[in-house]
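Lecture 7 notes. Example A: sequence first, then its structure tokens.
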Amino acid sequence: MIAMALGIVIILGITTLFADTSKSLDSVDRSGRLIENALFALELLASELSLAGYWGGASYPVDAETQIFVAGEVPSSVPSGLSWDVATEVPAACLGTGRIISGTADNAKAELAFAMEYPLFSALGSSLNSEVAAGICGVGAIAPASSNSDYFVIRRAGSCATGAPPKPAVNRCRPLGDYYHLQANGCYSENLGLSGGELKLLKVNNANVASQLSYTGFDCSTMAPVYRLVSRIYYVDNDDTMTRLYLDNSGGALGFQTETLVEGVELLRFEWFIDRSGDGQYDFVSRSPSASDWSKIIGVKIWTVVRSSVAEPGYIDDAVYSIAGEPWAVPTDKSSYRRVIQSRMVDITNMGGSG
């Protein structure tokens, strides 16, 4: 009897130790996955924003009317109605689908050309939802954006330069896919009427890229590199999922495709650092810059709130946090979830300094 009692005590002790160890390991695993998600989300946004204003061989800023619509291209002259007033207006987020501008030989190209004048801007998710509801953005279903979070649009040249003929298997660039690419002229030639800095923005494929994108580099003989035009929108949807919309072809139709990135992202906010004087130092910080200030952005502070995917029994987070200088209260129905709040500064070296 004594031996049996001692055995039961030992078994109970081992069982309790095993349960406590399993609980601890589960907690460590949840914390690890939470931190991993939070770091991945922040790193992804930072790497994307650092490329804002990058146009391959073309300098920033881009002027669509003087650089892209040159003699011999369509349209040869740009109707005044196609040009945005950079002092008072920001173009739509979903430019490039051909559903906003009309009356040109290539409506999508006309939209993308002027979108290049605004390589970066941000607003609340509610403004993106209005474009989605109007059917401007895509060819498929797009989850609505959270009205409490910011979204941002980035347009730039792809980081992979190809040539003619393209060899994606060698240079690892995406196949052309009958999509819009750009090429900057590096050649100054009076005989050819080239002053350098002109841009070609055309939809090309493997068969016609060499004839359509024929600009050369500084030596006026070597073909200039060709870059895929990237247009992406990052936002948080109503299910707390960070989502990316990217402009692409799907079955021959041009529209924004949806890509799910990180689950559990409750909030996304930005503080933009603006250099109005053009001296390379920021003059002030704003959550919502004016239309004319978007060309003068030199940095951004990213704020993210990422929560665990699993509620923790007995845990309550009812705090009010200060994020980007504004209070943010934990949603009452998500108070049993642990969360990580992070921020990071990112230099945007390709933009700003335009005074």
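Example B, a different protein, same format:
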Amino acid sequence: MSLRARLTLAYSAVLAGVLLVFGAALYLILSFSLIIQIDQTLARSAEEILRTSRVTTQRDLRILTLPSLQFASSNVYVQVWNAEGALIASSSNMGAFEQPLDALSLQEPTQQFRDVRVGEVHLRVLTVPVVLASEPSGFLQLAAPMAVVDRARESLLIFLAVGGALALLIAAGLGSWTARRALRPLDTITETALQITRADDLSRRITLEAPPASEVGRLIRAFNETLERLEALFTSQRRFLADVSHELRTPLTAIRGNVDLIRRMGADPESLEAIQSEADRLIRLVGDLLLLAQAETGNLPLARAPVEVDTVLLEVFQQGRVLAQERVEVVLGDLDQALVMGDRDRLKQLFLNLVANAIQYTPHHGRVTLGMKLVGEWVHVSVADTGPGIPADELPHVFERFYRVDKSRRRPSLGGAGLGLSIAYWITRNHGGRIEAASETGKGSTFSVWLPLASSKAGND
């Protein structure tokens, strides 16, 4: 069942319940009101008869003298029964009927109101005991026809049934129209989603106008934000796949060329060295991809042991000078002694990635400066270069996975797949620290890593 049908059914069910309760209450109120009126009429008639009755005494006998019963309304029937159960008087509208109007109540010592049927006639009967000198002397029975009450009840039931059915039909129609109008934006969202799926176009957005604070407005905004994130993710992945394909094709092409050369000319040291270099490059790329995949799934455990940051930085400094190969000057700035809790190999990889990235973007005869100092309860490690810098619009994205600065600003001889800074960000975050980037176009960039000191970290734990 569709949501529109369920809403319509729910509206109709609620209205049916309300109409049922209202109809039942109205039916009971009308019935009680009419019956009370009849009871009051019978009680007044009985009171008038008893008030105008006379008791006469002849020797030891007490004789009840009744008034004329013709005063009663033609719609009120009267019978008077003695204590022995004999009919002693009745109203003229009773005709030849000599049976008790309500035989059961003639056995009761108190006043009784009862509904009875005499033949096909529905009557409301009042039975009043007649007491003379503290002794029961008979019964007075008065009855009024219930035809008016029965017709009123029947008319009300017909009205409620017909009116309720019409009300339910109208409510179902209005509910269906309201639900269709309210859910029309959902149909638009569904159609847009299907078009995106068919056309494989994540750039499309829902342009339906709706109040921003409404449920539909929030849904549209959330849906468009989801599309934006998906579009950015797929764009990054496509770009990453293209970059990885290029990075893999270049070393593989070089390896294949050198293999062909060795096959034709025989082995020589230069060809073997080139093959070794490209194979190492492939291993590094695959290793970075595997590291990110393990980090994403949480299957990359980190050791927790004291690490001397200054010692690790000295090792990174030596490796950085080897990577630069006199093309770029790698210098060591301030270097304080500090101890942090973490994984030594991953921290070394973090700093080495930053240094390699700085060397990659620094032109010939430029400078890369590596330094470390203590700032309060934190260790501040900085890697600064004199490269072309990072544009302001790209600076917030440099740590995103699969992101690289525009290829036109990359050195074609170095380059990478845009994974180094993402790995650095992940390692820093999982050591309880933070990493920042500051840059000015034409003047270079500075990457800062903040790690909590071992004593501070232990105190926080």
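Note on Example B: The longest helix spans residues 147-199. The domain at 305-460 is CATH 3.30.565.10 (Heat Shock Protein 90).
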